[in-house]
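Hi U.,

Before I forget, here's the chain from the pilot set. I'm dumping it here mostly so it's searchable later in email.
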Amino acid sequence: MKPVFYLLLTCVVLAACQNSNHNSSGSSDSAHEGMNHDSEVDNESKMMLAMSKGMEAMHAVKLTGNADVDLSKMMAKHHKSAIAMAQEELDEGNDAQLKEMSNAIIKKQQAEIEQLNAIIHDLKAAKPDYDPNNKNAGLGSALNKNMMRMMQMGEMSKSSVDHEFASMMKKHHQDGVDMARLMVEFGHDARVKQLGNAIIKDQEAEISVFERWLEAHK
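Structure:
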C-alpha cells in the first residue's frame, strides 16, 4: 500500500509543479530543456514540498483503531504542514495581509497541536472503536477518501510566493475542513468534536479571505 501511495504522491507533486509552471510562464517548453535535475529541484516550491511532506507524514501515522486518537494524530500532522507553509510565506513573501494571516495561522495551529497532543496523551489507553483497515465503511472508508481528495492538488499559482501561498493554503484549508468534519462526525470525545467545529469555522473564514485576495491579485 505504501509504495503505491508514494508513487501516486510523486506523480501528483510533479503534475502540480508542471501546472504551476505552465500558469506562471508563457515561455516555450524549449526554455526548460537545458535545465538539469538539480536546478529543477532548486526551483521546486518549498510550499509544495511542505504540503507533500505533510501528506507523507499523515500516511505514515500508525492508526490505533480509536477514532478520537487517530483523527487527532492526523489533524496534528496536517497542522504542521500548514505551519511550514505559513513560515515560508513569512520568510519569502511580500504581501502584508498574507504575512499577518501567516502569523495568525502559526499561532492558532500551534495551540491546536498542543490540544491535539493532550487528547492523544489522555486517550493513549483507549480501546479501538473502528476498523482502520475497512476501506468500505465507517471511519476507515472516510479517512481513505479524505486522503485521496488531498492528493487532488488542483491548479497552484506560482506567479509569486504570495500567490502560491494563497492558492495552496486555500486548498490546504479545505482539506483541513474536510478532516475536521470527520472529527465532528466520528469523534466521541467532546474535546475532539469541539475542536473540529472550531477548525471548520476558522478555516472556512480564512478560505474566503484567500479567495478574495486571489481575485483581487490576478
